[in-house]
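Deliverable D4.2, example record:
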Amino acid sequence: MMRLPLFCMTALALAGCVQSPATRTAAAQPQPPQQQLPGQDCAPPVYPPAALQARMSGVSMMAFLVGSDGTVRESRLLKSSGYAILDQAAEAALRLCRFKPALKNGHTVAAWQPVQYAWSLP
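Output generated by the structure prediction step:
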């Protein structure tokens, strides 16, 4: 079994699907689409209205498994934003994403990748 950090870094280099730095900001208001990176089809999560009203903010740190078909197969919360509602919104948005899968020996393979969603108030 490969070590996760080395494999994640390799997968990131090959897949090119997480912004550098690997941080997304969840918008409180709809914003124009951001430039998409090659191999990425992923919208930022929607700030939950209840979390916005309660002035919740934080960073949801997650890892996700991109299958060989480019879909998100599984996700894990690595560090909570401090609010379950924000973490759940990040997870729900991630499930809708599609990515360019990692390559190994010329074949697409499943690979774990890290991502952070920064929830900041306007």
